[in-house]
Amino acid sequence: MIPEQLRQELKRRVADAVTPREAAVDVMKELQRHCGWLTDEAVAEAAVLLGISTLQVEELATFYEMIYRRPVGRNVIHVCDSVSCWAMGGETLLAHLEQHMGIATGQTTPDGAFTLLPCSCLGNCGNGPTLMIGETIHHRVTPEDARAILARAMDQGAP
């Protein structure tokens, strides 16, 4: 169950949209922010708010890489795996992160701090390899840079 204040805010956003479906990603992201990931309950809530079926919400949720349909860590690290980033060392960066963090791509660290996920494109093609923690994009990331970025994120408790 989501707080009534959040429900009212999301209703307002849906009402302000040209069509309810236009607000779908915004609604899903807010519910995800509240729950930590898009739970089945949140999918049902989104369907009611948007006036569409839970199947339609599920279809949208599974289309977008940054909508999580399973639990994730407090910080999600997206490593761009587009051809541009891969050509500039993205594969090496991802392998380094896996080794440094002791997890495979798609897994979460035992302390729940980080989940490591590939992302098909972060829109930073000229500055690869690129990774994103939370909403913060880091470009031209070397393995050494990645260690420093992770250390800062751990120190700050957030991206």
A few lines on this structure:
This protein is of the alpha+beta class. It has helices at residues 4-16, 24-35, 40-50, 54-63, 83-87, 90-101, 143-156; strands at residues 75-80, 114-119, 131-133, 136-138.
Helix/sheet category: alpha+beta
Q: What is the CATH T-level topology of the largest domain?
A: Glutaredoxin
- Beta content comes to 5-15%
Which geometry do the CA atoms define? elongated
The oligomeric state is single chain
CATH architecture of the largest domain, by name, is 3-Layer(aba) Sandwich
Q: Point out poorly predicted stretches.
A: none
Instruction: List SSEs in N-to-C order.
Output: HHHHEHHEEEH
Distance between the termini: 27 Å
Specify Rg, calculated over alpha carbons.
17 Å
Counting DSSP H or I runs of 4 or more residues, the number of helices is 7
**Overall strand count:** 4
Overall mean pLDDT: 93
Query: Class of the largest domain, according to the CATH hierarchy?
Result: Alpha Beta
The spatial strand order of the largest sheet comes to 2-1-3-4
Number of domains: 2
Name the helicity range.
40-55%
The CATH superfamily title of the largest domain: Glutaredoxin
The biggest sheet, with number of strands, parallel, antiparallel or mixed sense and barrel status, is:
4 strands, mixed
